[in-house]
Amino acid sequence: MEPGTEGASAHGPEEHERPRGQLVPEGEWLRAVLEQAPLPIVVLDPDGTVRLWNRAAGRLFGWSAAEALGQPLPIVPPEQQSEFARLRARVLAGETLLGAKVVRRRKDGSPLALRLSAAPLRDASGAASGVVAVLEDASELEQLEQQLRHAQKMEAVGRLAGGVAHDFNNLLTAILGYCELAGTARLPAEREAGRPLGEIRRAAERAARLTGQLLAFSRRQYLEPRRIALHEVVAHARPMIEPLLGERVELRLELAPEPGAVYADPGQLEQALINLCVNARDAMPQGGTLTIRTREVVLDRPQAAALGLLPGVHEVLEVSDTGVGMDAATLARAFEPFFTTKEVGKGTGLGLSMVYGFVRQSGGAVAVCSAPGQGACFTIYLPRASEGPEAAPEPAPASRGAPLAAETLAAPGAALVVEDDAPVRELMRAVLAAQGWQVLAAADGVQALERARAHTGAPLRLLVTDVVLPRLDGPELARQVAGLHPGVKALFVSGYAGEPLAPLTGEQAPPPGGGALLLRKPFTPAALLAKVEEALQSRPAPGEGRPAGTAPPA
């Protein structure tokens, strides 16, 4: 199309027919350019009356040029007239605005977030005779900025929660460990302290469960993922869910006939489902219907980006209720830790945050849709697992209540214990020394390496080390100690799993003894001894080189 052969003035469409090659007058050509511009362009006179209104403005706001021209700018609602007047005065005074955030309205009354750029329109003498404004729809950008701010806030709170839980786990390890040691005393006077010690232990275990929820939110909990179909999780959880709902709530299942598999920790996924069901039950105090659905969806690029996922096939686990619903303010804070709308004492506010953290740690996303009086629907998206054999099941963890027995460990030698938290380090030293081990203790990786180099006594058979250490981390320490003392077995201790264990899942040489066992904090002396025995009995195996129970490298 020849420039200017089709266009319209600011006062409405107008056809221009000329012989081919005839020049278009400059003013007419300029009007055509303004009309065809992809962004809304508006020209106002000094008192705010519309003098130019292009087609893009009509498309975005809904008023035609005939409706807008010669009238006060219609997109400004009454409550924003004073702001509009101040901005107009600034431009008429010679100021140029670039990307100012404003909210205006469409013809149907709906609000619209805009980016405003404006400059004075000057006459031949140079005086400001009006305002020319370019407007850009910023609603999608505003939404993305809100999502980014929310993600940053959740990440910051997650780091705080993870740090608090990690430090608290050290305290709990010492409390639980010394309670167990005191409980095995043989003196009558000490046995009489059994009841108070039991209460201390139970309180510490409750605190340990709380730190577990914090670590779940911060995406630093220990996971044991494997391939599993969602309908298996629902079937296994159903006997636990139904008693929790009570007689007033009807449970409905709408499960996909051919469910795909996901790669996730079955126990944690089951706990997430139970948390969502309990949350739904509490939202229906007078009763209602709770529906659990599984289905498969294919997310395109925009859908996946909105959820922070990659495009492709995802399995969906959905929990919806017919309860009271949530308003926008509550909805925005639904996954924040310690945020709850329940009465004091009726909940910690960690249930939904645990779901959020677990799902994100598993490579998925969770979304919620709700409105007051219309119930709520929580949707978990998990990437579909590729076809292949399931991960080998992990051996059952040692019971926390297992008795301490001298015969648990055979032929002790020397053990190197590395832990930067002094009470935990002393507890591990005392427990191993009581079993006949010659214990070398160190507060950081460098000090531990020095002691390993200088050791000339009994064979160094065991390294018990925290994963995260000052100066030299646990995985690298294990590799260097293995070079100094071939055959040494490693047991890693951690208050959380995740990035700190990444060195064990890469292409580097495997840690001593092949597989690397992990003991989670808080732990008891019995659990420590059981894990030590497991480490001593481990054998190198092809492909081993990561903590048992952690996901294989992607």
Summarize this structure as a short list of keywords or feature phrases:
single chain; 554 residues; alpha/beta; Beta-Lactamase; Heat Shock Protein 90; 5-stranded antiparallel β-sheet; 5-stranded mixed β-sheet; 16 helices; 19 strands; disordered C terminus
Write a brief caption for the model.
The protein is α/β, with parallel strands linked by helices.
Description:
The protein is built from 16 helices and 19 strands. The protein has 554 residues and is of the alpha/beta class. A 5-stranded antiparallel β-sheet has the order 4-3-7-6-5, sandwiched between helices. A 5-stranded mixed β-sheet has the order 9-11-12-14-13. Helix 9 (266-282) packs antiparallel against helix 12 (351-361). The model is unreliable at 1-24, 186-191, 216-221, 344-349, 388-410, 497-515 and 540-554 (pLDDT under 50).
Radius of gyration: 33 Å
Give the overall form.
Answer: elongated
| Distance N to C terminus | 53 Å
Number of helices: 16
CATH class of the largest domain: Alpha Beta
Can you list the strand order of the major beta sheet?
4-3-7-6-5
Number of strands: 19
Question: Low-confidence parts lasting 5 or more residues at pLDDT below 50?
Answer: 1-24, 186-191, 216-221, 344-349, 388-410, 497-515, 540-554
Q: Structural class, from secondary structure content?
A: alpha/beta
> What's the name of the CATH homologous superfamily of the largest domain?
Histidine kinase-like ATPase, C-terminal domain
Residues in helices, as a percent range? 25-40%
What is the averaged pLDDT score?
75
Secondary-structure arrangement, i.e. CATH architecture of the largest domain: 2-Layer Sandwich
Q: Any idea how many domains?
A: 4
Largest sheet: 5 strands, antiparallel
Share of β-strand residues: 15-25%
CATH topology of the largest domain: Heat Shock Protein 90
